[in-house]
Design a protein that fits this description.
Length: 148
């Protein structure tokens, strides 16, 4: 069994799979991409979000590529309050009025990192962006752009 898949199962993250042998073989042959999308209109991340982030981190530890999406289609669709209802498509105004923000370290698929403040899925506030080659830009960011 693939090392990642074994650790994934040992940690209790794995419930079922259509073809576990094929998945194990694929993971042995090549690096895969996996993603999670977060609704940036939610008031905060929650323990369910942490579990998904932990799964992506484990995937990265074993040489695969995690991708975290903030906003975009995930935000437009929103979080389903009731499983029996169709998700409500949010307007641009509803998305703009959300105040999803935080502070911490974001790691990008290419190895670059951003440490600082963020809001509504963008680098917003004081922070440092470090490219994968080690070059840094520090300052105040507005909607992902460094202000000169």
């Amino acid at each position: 069994m693939n090392k990642f898949l074994k650790e994934f199962k040992d940690r209790g993250y794995f419930y079922q799979c259509t073809s576990e042998d094929e998945l194990s073989n694929l993971l042995d042959k090549k690096s895969i991409n996996s993603y999670i999308g977060f609704d940036s209109t939610a008031s905060s991340l929650h323990v369910g979000s942490l579990l998904q982030i932990m799964c992506l981190r484990l995937l990265q530890k074993h040489g695969h590529r995690p991708i975290v999406l903030l906003g975009g289609g995930t935000t437009r669709i929103g979080d389903p309050s009731g499983k029996e209802e169709t998700r409500k498509i949010l307007s641009e105004k509803e998305i703009e009025n959300s105040e999803w923000s935080g502070q911490g370290v974001l790691t990008f698929p290419n190895g670059a990192t951003y440490e600082g403040e963020w809001a509504n899925g963008f680098m917003n506030g004081k922070g440092t962006f470090t490219w994968s080659d080690g070059k840094e830009k520090t300052g105040t960011w507005v909607n992902g752009e460094l202000q000169e």
